[in-house]
Design brief:
By secondary structure, the protein is an alpha/beta fold. The chain is 41% helix and 16% strand.
Amino acid sequence: MNIVIVTPAAAPTLSGNLNTAQRWARLLKHIGHQVEIESEWDGAPADLMIALHAGKSYGSIQRFATLVPRRPLIVCLTGTDLYRDLRTDSSAQNSLELATRLVVLQEMALKELPADMRHKTHVIYQSAKPIPPVAPLKSQFEISVIGHLREEKDPFRCAMALRYLPPTSRIRVCHMGRAMSAEMNDQARQWMAREPRYRWTGEIQHREVRRRLARSRAMVISSLMEGGANVISEALVTNVPVIASRVPGNIGMLGEKYNGYFTAGDERELAALLLWLESNHDFRTALKNQCRKRVPLVLEKCESKGLEALLADIKRQRPGQA
C-alpha cells in the first residue's frame, strides 16, 4: 500500500511524534509498503493515512475522510489528546469519529476513551533498540532527565528536588532536551546557576542521549501527562530503572504495581525516592527487576507485529480497500 503518515512535528525538532512517524515508516517499509511522512496531507494519492495527534492533525484527518471516505484512516492518540484535548476540543473528538481505527501507546489509555471507541482501538507500545551497556560514572550518582522543555513535561521538577537532598548525596542530574520557548531556556539557565547539581545540555544528538542514558543510575520522567513515552522504552531496554510521576501514561508503560512512582508535581516525594534509590541497593535491584519484566512489550518485533495486526484488521473489515 501507499501510506502517508501525518505528524504535526516540524522536521528539525527531535519530537516524540516525529520519532514515532520515522520509526513506523521504517517498520512499514520493511514489510513491503511505500510510506511518506508529511506535516500536513497535501492531497497526494494514498491508500491509507496514519495521523499522529487527533487535535493537531485534524485538518488532514478531515480532508482525507472527506475526499477518500472509503480509504482507511488511522489516528494515533498522544498524551495531550488523551488527557486534555479529548475532554474539551471538538476537533480531537471529531477525529475519533472519523477514524477507521485508533492507536494508543499504552494499555491505560483505553480507559480514557469513550466505550464505543474501544472496539476499534489497538494498543501498540513504542519500541526501542537495545544498546551496549556503558559503565556509570564513579564520581557521581548520575540521573538522566530526557525530554524537551515544555509545560506538560514539568521539566524542572527534578531540579527542584535537589534542594531537599543532603550535602552528602552524590546525585547529579543531567537534563537533555530542547527548550521550546525563550522562557524555558531562561529557566533552565537559572536552575543551573542556582543548583550546581543540575546540568542542562540542551538538544543533543540522539545517539549521545542514549549513551548518557545507558551510563545513568536511573532516569526521571516527571510529566504531568504522557501518551506513552518512548524514552521509557529506551530506559527499559537499556536496563536503567525509571523514577516516574504517577500519571496514567507512565503507569500504562511500567505497570500498576511498579514501585518507582512519585506524586506528579511533588518534588519532596521525588527527592525522598531518589535518596532511597541512591542509598538502598535492594531497592535499585527491585526496580531493575520490575523494569526487566516490561521489556518484551517494547521490543521492535512487538511493535512491528502490532502494526501488522492493525493493517490486517483493517483488511479483514475492508477487503477491497487494503
